[in-house]
Every structure is written in structure tokens, then in C-alpha cells.
TrEMBL record, chains A, B:
The keyword Nucleus does not apply. This is TetR/AcrR family transcriptional regulator. It comes from Nocardioides mangrovi. Residues 34-53 bind DNA. Pfam families: TetR_C_33 (PF13305), TetR_N (PF00440). InterPro entries: Homeodomain-like_sf, HTH-type_TetR-like_transc_reg, HTH_TetR, MT1864/Rv1816-like_C, Tet_transcr_reg_TetR-rel_C_sf. PROSITE patterns: HTH_TETR_2 (PS50977). The keyword DNA-binding applies. Residues 11-71 form the HTH tetR-type domain. Keywords: DNA-binding, Transcription, Transcription regulation.
DNA sequence: ACATTTCGAGAGCAGTGCTCTTGTTTTCGT
DNA sequence: ACGAAAACAAGAGCACTGCTCTCGAAATGT
């Protein structure tokens, strides 16, 4: 029995609360997450929890950050498992499949991250850097595809001038310059992947598509082809 | 003062509750919608509301159905405003723009329909037919594009056999047969549009894209081109 | 005209997020 | 090493929620 110092104890309690909160999140979803229930489960009184998280919403954002980190780590691990780094199609598929695998394993967490924000629109808070890991992994692929001089697999319209300026920030997020049309195709792939996932996980594909795995594979394969990553 | 009959009164009260609920939904979102507050607003006691809607969830599903109907009507109206019925690209853009316009005007309703389902996964209930109006409008365009023998604007991979059988139900929802690759491209467009909308409305495009209007126009225009609707 | 159903109102229950107060314990400055 | 200061757990309490039950009053069907 080490005579726990105050900081140690605080760290332990914080973890215990977060762990129990994640478990409850997986069971009942974000809407039904109860601070009092969490307090009971970890063996303290509800008001004590507020010494660690000032409100339920802050607890939720902590869970969001944790979930983003977990998903980001999964994505990066999947990418690292592709041996030939120049196989950008494999890396793109690894990116998409990692997200889908994680989402299927943690549907409530996915809903928390990419579904409707529960307490109104969350202002730009400390969840942004964690969330950037996922898109950042994709942007790396964009840069590498540009450097590899891949030619797009589908004819792509020239960007309107408004659109060109509209994409300024995302372009700035990539160190090297990227062709207009390529940038657009990658953004479309981004929307298509998350659109598929949200439609699938939120029950909008129930009638219409039988085998989600097959459909996702077909879609992502097509996206890779459109991006010129294959061959 | 007509001596309101019982059925009349019931219809009026039901409407009053629904109207007030929609207003409150637009103000505070689905999570914070309160039966008691609605009751106060319409001038009755909370328990009286339960004579009209057996639970809060049933009230929410009624709101979902209403929202689907409103969105469906908006989509159909937008489609009807395209004079040359063979201009499938214009009709596709009308479809996409109608959804986005409605979503921007009613973000909380959009979140209710296409965001994370609030009370766990809603089982297949009476919301399905209302929801089918939106996808149904898209499927009509698929059928017409096939009949018009449009040739896809982007090279498309052959479907895997698993994928071909996976798409059985959606194919059955269209009276006339549809080419495999065309079906896939339309499903991708479907996911891409809703993916864009969810990413935009739920705040994931905040950094990255400045002008959502321009980007959406560019994306949907590209989708129409990929589907072979232009020219 | 009467029995049945429908309805509104109120009380009440169990639960929630959150605040405040009250002792107790750990930490820190001197 | 000791006393001031900060951190902490516990409990009571407030305002609120969804929902149930009972009780009278009103409209309905026969």
C-alpha cells in the first residue's frame, strides 16, 4: 500500500471516471450518459465527480478527445502496416478501412465524433488537434500522391475561381503545392467515405444494400481509382 | 365559437403540440426538447400531453416523420421546377441543392434525420415511408438516366459478384433494370452529397474549406459529370 | 337519460445536473 | 516542524426531467 500522493490519487480517479464513462458510453450512448451513475459505479458520490470534471459536457468532450486519439492511433497504425510506402492505393484503403473497422467496433463513439453534436454546436475547443490526426493522415497521402505525379483516374472539371480560393486553408495544411483538381477529388473521397459510414451506421442503408462490407470495398476501390492511385 | 367536437379539439391540440415541439426543436435541438416545457407553452399540464403522445420518443418520431415529409416535399418541388425533364443534370443539382437548402434552414431537423439517432438505433418504424421520398426522388433520376442511355463520365470498375448481389434491394426499388456501374456511381453520389452535408453542418469542414456554397457546387457539378448527365 | 369513454388537472415518484456547506486530509510556506 | 492554505469526499438540497396514477368534469354513443 503505497501512501498515494495527492497527484497520483487524482490521476487514478480521473482515469477511473473516464474508463467507466467510456464503458457506459458504449452501453447506453452519449445521450443517456449519467454523471450520477458513473459516480456510483466508481464508488463515490456525484458531487465528487465535479472536482474532476466541471460539468457533464466537459466530461463528454474529454471522451471525444480520447475517442479521436484512439481512432487516430488506429489509422496511423493501419497506415504503418503498409510496407511499400509508395502503394498509395493500399494506404488509402488502409485509412478508410481503419476508420470503418473502428466505427463498427465503437458505434456510439463514432456517433459522438461524426454524428450530430449533442450539446448544440461545440465551439472550436481543445478537440480540434485530436480530430486533425485523422484528416492529417489523409492529407499526407494527398501530398505524396502529388509528389508521385499520379494522374487522376477520372476526368475532373476545372475549379471555379471561388472554389479555388475556398480551398485555401486545406491547401495551406499541406506543405507542398497540390493540383486543383486533385485536391477536389480527395475532398470528394473524404466526403464519400464519411458519408458512407454515417449512412451505414445510422441505418439509412438498411433497405437498399445488403452487404455493407462489399459495398464499402467497391466504393473505396473506385475512389482509389478516381484518384489515380491504382496501377 | 363553434362548439368544438371532440375529434376537432384533439386534432387542434395535436397540431399545437407538434407546432410548439418543432419550434422548440429548432431553438434548443432534439436533446434538450422537454415535454413539460412544450406543455407549458401550449397551456396545459404535462400529463395531458401524454394523452396525445405516449412518450417523448414517440413525439420525436412524429417530428422526424414531419421533417422527412417537409424535406421530401421540398425536394419534389425543386425537381418539378426543372422545366426540361430530360435535363437530368439540372434535376440532380436541384435535388442536391434542395436538400442542402433545407438542411441549412433547419439544421437541428437535419441532425435529427441524418445525424446520430438519439434514442439508440430506431428500429424500422413508421418513419421509413417518409424517408423514402428523398431517396425515391434520386432513384427516379437513376431510372431516367438509364433509359436515356447516358454514358458515365468517369471510368468505373466492374462490380464484384458480392457487390452485385449486395445491391439487389436498391435495384429492385427501380422498376427498370440499371447498369451495374451506373448504380454504383449513383450510390457514391448519394454518399458524397450526404457526407458533404454532414461534415459541413456538424463542423468538420470549419478548417479546410472557406466557402461551403462554392465547394458544394463544385462537388455536385463533378458528380453530375461523373454520372454522365452533362452535355 | 344513462353508462362509457375521453380528457385535463394535480400530486407524486424516481431520476437527473449541479451547487453549497461541512468536516477531514493532504500539501506547502516559513 | 508547525500552522495556514488548499484540495477533497460526503451529504443535503434545488430545480428540473419523463412518466404514472388518481380524480372529477365533460363529451359521446346508445
Amino acid at each position: 500500500m503505497a501512501p498515494k500522493t495527492r497527484a497520483e490519487n487524482r490521476a487514478e480517479q480521473t482515469r477511473a471516471i473516464l474508463d467507466r464513462a467510456r464503458a457506459q458510453l458504449a452501453e447506453v450512448g452519449p445521450a443517456a450518459l449519467s454523471v450520477r451513475q458513473i459516480a456510483r459505479d466508481v464508488g463515490m458520490v456525484s458531487s465528487a465527480v465535479y472536482r474532476y470534471f466541471p460539468s457533464r459536457d466537459e466530461l463528454l468532450t474529454a471522451l471525444i478527445v480520447e475517442a479521436y486519439d484512439e481512432l487516430g492511433a488506429a489509422v496511423e497504425a493501419a497506415d504503418a502496416h503498409v510496407k511499400r510506402r509508395t502503394d498509395l492505393d493500399k494506404r488509402f484503403l488502409a485509412w478508410a478501412n481503419a476508420i470503418r473497422t473502428w466505427a463498427l467496433a465503437n458505434p456510439h463513439e463514432y456517433a459522438l465524433l461524426y454524428g450530430s453534436p449533442v450539446p448544440g454546436y461545440v465551439a472550436p475547443d481543445d478537440t480540434v488537434p485530436a480530430a486533425s490526426r485523422i484528416t492529417g493522415a489523409l492529407l499526407s497521402l494527398v501530398a505524396e500522391s502529388e509528389l508521385a505525379q499520379h494522374v487522376l483516374g477520372a476526368p475532373t472539371n476545372r475549379l471555379s475561381t471561388k472554389e479555388r480560393t475556398a480551398l485555401g486553408p486545406v491547401r495551406d495544411a499541406i506543405p507542398s503545392p497540390v493540383e486543383d483538381e486533385r485536391m477536389l477529388r480527395w475532398l470528394m473521397a473524404w466526403a464519400c467515405v464519411f458519408g458512407h459510414l454515417s449512412l451505414e451506421l445510422f441505418g439509412h442503408m438498411h433497405r437498399g444494400v445488403l452487404d455493407y462490407d462489399a459495398h464499402f470495398a467497391q466504393v473505396t476501390g473506385q475512389l482509389a481509382a478516381d484518384l489515380g492511385l491504382t496501377g
